[in-house]
Design a protein that fits this description.
Strand content of chain B: under 5%
Largest interface: A-B, 40 and 41 residues
Strand content of chain A: 15-25%
Number of strands of chain A: 12
Largest sheet of chain B: none
Radius of gyration of chain B: 19 Å
Structural class of chain A: alpha/beta
Order of helices and strands of chain B: HHHHHHHHHHHHHHHH
Largest sheet of chain A: 7 strands, mixed
Radius of gyration of chain A: 21 Å
Structural class of chain B: mainly alpha
Distance between the termini of chain A: 28 Å
Strand order of the largest sheet of chain A: 8-4-3-9-10-12-11
Number of helices of chain A: 12
Shape of chain A: globular
Order of helices and strands of chain A: EEHHHHHEHEHEHHEEHEHEHEEE
Distance between the termini of chain B: 35 Å
Shape of chain B: globular
Oligomer: heterodimer
């Protein structure tokens, strides 16, 4: 939709019409961090810009656009805004369409691609695993498939993060109500143990997850993460500058097996960062494919 | 498979007289709107629209929807016609005719879902054609809106078989046209082409309706056909389909429609498909709301 020269307001019909300064900020964030805020998230974005403006003593959005683009400290300000918009929250079964696409489309594709290999083994890497909810969720999904699609397959989840405290939390594997609220009751029953009002990940899931500290910009250590079928790297790259992001993505590309897939966060894009991966559409979500398709790739002119 | 052969189905589609036709109240309006835009008079259009109550209310809803980029409340029919523009009135009138002919149950598809898919596809086709600077941009909206015309033809001529195809598509989570082929041997694209010819729709609309699942076979209007084909696919992959999610992976580079579009559009290489996909979420809310409003007045 074309941006309208109108103030941010609710129209008669209750719809949201975006302030052009706000859509400009959306574009700045998308270009710098690759994360897109659709119209229904603009109110939220406006609210978070408001917090930053209050902190900086900036009177209006027009001036705040300058803080993000032309002022000497614009890069630091962008990080500060990103910190406001991407609340460091994570929880089990967070991105449902992504997890459904993994279960229903991607896992069958990989099983098919590896059908003729002697070793029936899957490896998933949760890069930037934060406090561990994502890798454990992945382990739970694969465990649930082990009586069906993945019968006779072994798998492991490699989980890495830069932050020592997050790593410690992930290793402890004990979670409160907030982060466990989306876990289906039968999964909760089957794979968790109650511990003083909190839920502790049981050994079945724990044994599938290896947690270690890793800096994604550490080139020498990144080369050891080879032979991966799927990488999840959600809301991590948004904090990287273009050159670092490109370096990390190149490592992901090298480390993935030829049929491999890369999942990013919701509304996170690689556009302009890397041409080797190509966008694929899955039901209500997207991912990136490494590109070794059986029927041959058609490259754009 | 149905007991009828493809030829028998085609003959039925060409001759059946229960096939929906253009509503009588809208025919004079549509005839008038086929004149060149610069010969149209606003007052005459307003008068012709006012004969049809539901079209009048639809015009007001559309004129007040942010999907059509209006910022000020419009409260008269004349205001709505001016706001929407005379050039767009044919789209609106055809859309209204299209809605009036929808049975209350489309072989198991809730008409609201069917209409949301059509409107979603129209908006995505328009958005994409503008982003790609395609010469067919002015035709994209209507072509997107009417691309599934053939579903109505199938519902009317083969209601039982179409219902079965839909059940099959849902249970196997496969595209509807694949299930239609399996059950009936004919897709809604083929039957839509026949109905569109009976309605004497414009040649580019007939091309889109007939070939949106086989864009590589379109003899002409190839860019428009490919554009709508991609818009349709993106809508179906982004939860604006026929009420179920297709269990599949789509790589646009491997789609036939994309190959056709590459031939027709030179700026495709630099296009940010990820962003376009995220932008589709912008439409969801407005599409649901607008369709709900339009359906209440039927």
């Amino acid at each position: 939709m074309t941006a309208s020269p109108a103030p941010t307001q609710a129209t008669e019909s209750g719809s949201f019409v975006a302030n052009p300064n706000l859509t400009r900020i959306r574009d700045v964030i998308y270009q710098a961090a690759g994360i897109f805020h659709p119209n229904h998230k603009l109110r939220f974005l406006e609210d978070r810009c408001g917090r930053r403006m209050k902190e900086l003593g900036v009177a209006n959005l027009r001036d705040y656009v300058d803080c993000l683009t032309v002022k000497p400290s614009h890069q630091a300000e962008l990080v500060a805004l990103l910190n406001e918009t991407t609340v460091g929250e994570t929880y089990f079964y967070r991105n449902e369409p992504q997890l459904e696409a993994l279960r229903k489309v991607i896992l069958p594709k990989i099983v098919e691609a590896k059908a003729n290999l002697p070793l029936r083994r899957l490896r998933i890497w949760s890069a930037g695993c934060s406090t561990g909810e994502e890798p454990y969720t992945l382990a739970l999904i694969l465990l649930e498939e082990s009586k069906g699609l993945l019968e006779g397959w072994s798998f492991d989840i490699q989980a890495t993060d830069l932050n020592e405290r997050s790593i410690a939390h992930a290793k402890r594997g004990v979670y409160g109500e907030y982060s466990t609220r989306n876990i289906p009751p039968q999964i909760r029953e089957k794979y968790f143990v109650e511990e003083q009002g909190e839920l502790s990940v049981g050994t079945l899931a724990r044994s599938r997850v290896t947690i270690q500290r890793l800096n994604l910009l550490d080139d020498s250590r990144m080369t050891f993460m080879k032979g991966v079928d799927i990488i999840f790297c959600c809301n991590v790259l948004i904090y990287f500058d273009a050159a670092s992001k490109s370096r990390v993505i190149q490592h992901f590309h090298t480390n993935l097996l030829p049929h491999g897939y890369l999942f990013l966060g919701h509304a996170e894009s690689l556009f302009g960062i890397n041409d080797a991966f190509h966008l694929i559409h899955l039901p209500s979500t997207t991912a990136y494919g490494k590109g070794a398709h059986a029927n041959g790739r058609k490259r754009l002119p | 498979m149905t007991g009828l052969s493809r030829e028998q189905i085609f003959r039925k589609l060409e001759t059946v007289d229960t096939m929906p036709s253009i509503p009588a109240t809208l025919e004079p309006l549509l005839r008038y709107l086929s004149l060149p835009v610069d010969q149209l008079e606003t007052q005459k259009v307003v008068d012709l629209i006012s004969h049809d109550k539901s079209l009048t209310v639809q015009c007001l809803h559309l004129a007040n929807s942010p999907l059509f980029c209006r910022w000020h409340a419009v409260d008269s029919l004349r205001g709505a016609v001016v706001a929407l523009g005379l050039g767009r009135m044919k789209e609106v009138a055809l859309a209204c005719s299209f809605m009036k002919m929808l049975p209350t149950q489309i072989g198991g598809i809730d008409p609201v879902i069917f209409w949301e898919h059509s409107l979603g596809c129209a908006l995505v086709a328009r958005h994409l054609s503008r982003k790609l600077n395609l010469p067919c941009a002015d035709k994209a909206y209507l072509a997107g809106l009417l691309h599934d015309f053939g579903i109505i033809a199938n519902v009317v001529t083969l209601p039982k078989e179409f219902g079965e195809a839909l059940i099959l598509a849902r249970s196997r989570e496969i595209p509807l046209h694949e299930a239609e082929l399996e059950v009936m041997g004919v897709t809604h694209a083929e039957s839509g082409g026949i109905l569109a010819a009976r309605w004497k729709l414009a040649p580019e609309l007939i091309a889109v309706i007939t070939h949106h699942h086989t864009p590589e076979q379109a003899p002409d209007h190839r860019a428009l056909v490919a554009l709508v084909s991609i818009a349709d696919l993106l809508c179906r992959m982004r939860n604006l389909g026929y009420g179920y999610a297709e269990r599949r992976l789509v790589d646009l580079l491997e789609e036939k429609a994309f190959t056709v579009l590459v031939e027709e559009c030179t700026t495709l290489a630099e296009f940010d498909w990820a962003r376009l996909t995220f932008e589709l979420d912008n439409y969801m809310f407005e599409v649901h709301k607008l369709v709900a409003a339009l359906y209440r007045i039927q």
